[in-house]
Amino acid sequence: MSTAEEVRLRFNILGPIEGWSNGTRLRLGGVIQERVLATLLLEPGKVLPVSRLVEAAWDEEPPPTAPHQVRKAVADLRRRIPGGADVLLTDGPGYRVADEQCEIDLAEFGLLIRKAKQTASEGRAAEAAEILRGALALWRGPVLSGGGGPVIEAASTSIEERRLTAAEQLFELHLGLGEAAELVVELRELVQQHPLRESLRGQLMIALYRSGRQAEALEEYGRVRELLVEELGIDPGPNLTKLYEGILRESPELAGPGPAAAPVAPVALPAEPPSTLPYDLSDFTGRDRELAEIQRAAEDGGGQGPQIVAIDGMGGCGKTSLAVRAAHRLAPQYPDGQLHIDLRGYTPGDQPVTAGMALDTLLRALGVPGNLIPDDVPARTALWRATLIGKRLLILFDNAADAATVRPLLPASSGSLIMVTSRARLVDLDGARWISIGVMPPQDSAMLVAETLGAQRVAAEPEAAAELARLCGHLPLALRIATARLRNRPRWTLQYLAERLRDETRRLDELSSGARSVSATLRLSYQALDEECRNAFSTLALHPGSDMDIHAAGALLGTGARDAEDLLEMLLDVHLVQQPEIGLYTFHDLVRSFAQSLLVESAESAESADSSDAVERLLGYYLTATEEACDLLYSGRRRRSTGIPPSTAELPDLRTAERARTWLLREQTALLAAVTLAERKGHDRYVVCLSRNLVFQLNDLGLLEEFGELSRVAVAAAGRLQDLALLGVSLSNLGVACWKLGRLTEGLEAARKSRDVAIRLGDLHTQAHSESILGQFNSLLGDFSEALGHMETAIAHERDLDMPRAEAESLTILSTLYEQWGRYEEARDAAQRSAELSRQLGQHEGLPGAITDLAFAHVGLGAYEEADRCLAEARALYGDAGNEVNLALTLALSADVDNLLGRPPRDPDQAERALAMMRTNSSPLRRAKVENMVGRLRRRQGDKAAALALHTHAHGLSSSLSYRIEEAYALAGMADALGDTADAVQYRAEAEKLFAALGVPAEHRRG
Question: What is the pTM of this model?
Answer without folding.
Answer: 0.57
